[in-house]
Amino acid sequence: MQLIDTHVHINFDVFESDLEDIKTRWQQAQVVHLVHSCVEPSEFKSIQALADHFGNLSFAVGLHPLDAQKWTNTTETEILNYAKSDQRVVAIGEMGLDFYKASNHQQQQQVLEAQLRIAHQLQKPIIIHCRDAAQKLKDVLELFWQQTGEVKGVMHCWSGTPEETQWFLDLGFYISFSGVVTFKNAKTIQDSAKIVPNDRLLIETDCPFLAPVPKRGKRNEPANVRHVAEFLAKLRDVPIETLAQQTTDNACQLFNLSLDD
Hints:
Elements: E1 3-8, H1 19-28, E2 31-36, H2 44-54, E3 57-61, H3 75-85, E4 89-98, H4 105-122, E5 126-131, H5 134-147, E6 153-155, H6 162-170, E7 174-177, H7 187-195, E8 201-203, H8 225-236, H9 240-255
Parallel strand pairs: 1-2, 2-3, 3-4, 4-5, 5-6, 6-7, 7-8
Helix pairs in contact: 3-4, 6-7, 8-9
């Protein structure tokens, strides 16, 4: 069995002291590849160093919506250059809209649109962060699709309703579930997880955040993606081996990964 954690942040300081132990645990959990997300381009060098060290790590470059105020007249060129400079860059992001924690809605939208243009230019998938902004995100994406063209991508750490889930499935997105789906009160997210087609489902930890049951409340890490997979397999009434194969194949398809590398 092979699992891919499609969204990690192991460059954060909270992992600095025991990264080798963390690697051992993810290997024991049969996690064979990580996709490292990026909060802002200044992280690029540290993420690149992790990829140099671990080997089975691909990564993204982009600017998170909660850091939209950090966008400058050089950020677009910076993201473009980073994405072109390393073949291990498999996506642009994470990008998106977060209206839960910030009120700079127009600024976030402008930064999102700029990164959509980068992804379209480079023909790379996008990693989308969306919180309390599904309707606006849908509108932005539909307009971009009409005016510029489609971009592949994933709705990461998805917590939307089944109706919202269908919006993004209709736009061609993959849907990724984190440890939140295992929470007892996450009924809406669980309902969404039931409707995602087999060929659009992804799993992630979003570590160090949102550790799944039975690790809830602790620092999250890539090995815990197995708990997400096990929960989703039960929820969707399939063997864990089947769900592992489906989500691994989907990650390879979206991010153009080769596990033989």
